[in-house]
Structures are given as C-alpha cells and as structure tokens.
UniProtKB/TrEMBL annotation:
This is Uncharacterized protein. The lineage of its organism: Bacteria, Pseudomonadati, Pseudomonadota, Betaproteobacteria, Burkholderiales. Gene3D superfamilies: prophage-derive protein ybcO. It comes from the Bacteria.
Length: 179
C-alpha cells in the first residue's frame, strides 16, 4: 500500500497570542452581572449567595497530627528505620458518607503508610488492593480508626469537633447495623 503525504499549501500562522489569565490565581476578572440580576438589584429582590459552612469536620492540622503517627496496620513510622511517614487515610465506606467526588469527614481518618521502595503501602492496599472483602474492610477500618483516636487522645490532639463527627457518622452506621 502506497503512503501519501499531505503537504500544507500555506504555513500555519498564530493570529492571536495565547493568554492564561483565567488560570492564574488572583488575576481572574470579576464576572459582570447579567440584565436579570441588575433588575433584581434595582427592585430589591436579588438573592444573596453565601457560601455554606462545610457539613462535616475539616481540619488540615488534624490530618497532619494523624499523619505524624505510626501506621496503625503495620506499625511503620519515620522512626522505624526508613522514610515511611504515614498518611491520613479517610475511611472508604459509603456507609460513612463517601461518594463520587465526596470525601468523608476529617474526623474519620487513620494513619496508614504509603508505598515505599519495592513495597506496597497499607494505604494503597486498602484503597486499590481489594485484599479484604467489604464487611472485613469496614470492620478493620473501624478498628484502625479507634486506634488512631486513642493515640491522639493520649497526645491531647483529638478535637471535640472530630469526636462529634465520629459519633454522628460511626454511631449512625452502628445503629443501622444493629437493626
């Protein structure tokens, strides 16, 4: 089969310069209001759109405190002869509020180790490994969560907001399981 090559008759020319204004933080232009919104403001019936408070506990500091602990599954930590710093791993159950694009409360995190050189970490094994069946995985995660909570309580780093969310989500799951 003969291969034919197509050649351009005219060279490609860039007529407008490419800009990245929309992607730079702080450089985005403020969106103008539409006619309907302008009329609603004049009449006094426009809506005030305020951002809602998160419905679950979110704390970057709490996640850092959890990540500073040793892995609750295998016990590896940065002090155990390797660069294994734990990660704050969220519970993986739909039962606890996880969904497509949704992460559970930061109160429901446990310390699990990441992948290392030539070894799968406990976090990856839980998330992608499929080493546990569903009931075993949920039970194991609840045990790990309890260990993490106990460890943080010993250190005085367990916030009351985390306790409230823990009772709200895990308590609801346990009540459903009993019924």
């Amino acid at each position: 089969m003969k291969r034919t090559e197509l050649k351009r008759r005219t060279p490609l020319v860039n007529r407008t310069t490419l800009t990245r204004k929309a992607f730079l933080p702080g450089k985005r232009e403020k969106k103008k209001i539409g006619l309907g919104q302008a009329v609603a403001r004049l009449v006094g019936t426009h809506l005030q759109h305020n951002r809602k408070e998160p419905s679950v506990f979110r704390s970057e500091q709490h996640c850092k405190n959890v990540a500073a602990l040793a892995c609750v599954n295998c016990g590896k930590s940065s002090g155990s002869g390797g660069p294994y710093k734990s990660q704050a791993a969220h519970l993986n159950g739909v039962e606890f509020g996880k969904g497509l694009g949704l992460k559970v409360s930061d109160a429901l995190v446990m310390a699990l180790c990441p992948d290392g050189f030539m070894r799968r970490g406990c976090h990856a094994l839980l998330d992608q490994g499929g080493i546990y069946d569903k009931p075993t995985a949920v039970a194991q995660q609840l045990i790990w969560l309890q260990k993490t909570r106990d460890e943080l309580k010993k250190l005085g780093q367990w916030p009351q907001e985390a306790e409230d969310d823990l009772i709200r989500f895990v308590g609801a799951y346990l009540r459903r399981a009993e019924a």
